[in-house]
Amino acid sequence: QVQLVESGGGLVQAGGSLRLSCAASGGALSSLAMGWFRQAPGKEREFVAAISKSGDYTYYADSVKGRFTISRDNAKNTMYLQMNSLKPEDTAVYYCAASRSSWTYNSKWSYDYWGQGTQVTVSS
Predict the structure, then answer these.
(1) 8 A C-beta contact, residue 9 and residue 119
(2) Cα angle: 35, vertex 38, 41; to 5 degrees
(3) Residues whose CB falls within 8 Å of the CB of residue 94, separated by 6 or more in sequence, listed in order
(4) How distant is the alpha carbon of residue 123 from its chain centre?
(5) Tens of each residue's pLDDT in the chain, 124 residues
(6) For residue 26, with 0-12 CB atoms within 10 Å meaning exposed, 13-18 middle and 19 or more buried, which class applies?
(7) HSE-CB of 14 using CA atoms within 13 angstroms
(8) Environment class of residue 65 by beta-carbon count within 10 Å: exposed (0-12), middle (13-18) or buried (19+)?
(9) CA quadruple 43, 49, 53, 58: dihedral sign
(10) Taking the CA atoms of the chain, what radius of gyration do you get in angstroms?
(11) Is the CB of residue 98 less than 8 Å from the CB of residue 108?
């Protein structure tokens, strides 16, 4: 069974950068479409970014487009989220997710596997 582990979260000042990593085990990353979601206190889990199995296609929420970059290295079974120009409203727990098939990139219901999350806190 596929397991996902996020890392790279932390505390950063507004305008700063962080890079999140998602390490996959139990299967080839190339067989999985991947995404990042986040959840702030009192809010629903929301879509952040997604990337196709091959990496040929990427998708972003309007709120992060131009600031965040999703990428993957299938040979290393790792996905990344580079976050630049961070804002206080980016503060949330960030979750790595993977989908085996029938992928709707911005729907949490399309994903079969989830990591435990990593906290990102952006101070003003």
Answers:
(1) yes
(2) 165
(3) 6, 9, 20, 36, 37, 38, 48, 81, 117, 118, 119, 120
(4) 20
(5) 899 999 999 999 999 999 999 999 988 889 999 999 999 999 999 999 999 999 999 999 999 999 999 999 999 999 999 999 999 999 999 999 999 987 899 999 999 999 999 999 999 9
(6) exposed
(7) 5
(8) exposed
(9) positive
(10) 13
(11) no
CA atoms within 13 Å, Cβ hemisphere of 6:
27
Give the residue among 97, 90, 84 at the shortest CA–CA distance from 120: 90
- By residue count, the chain amounts to 124
Beta strands in 14-65 (DSSP E): 18-25, 33-39, 46-51, 58-60
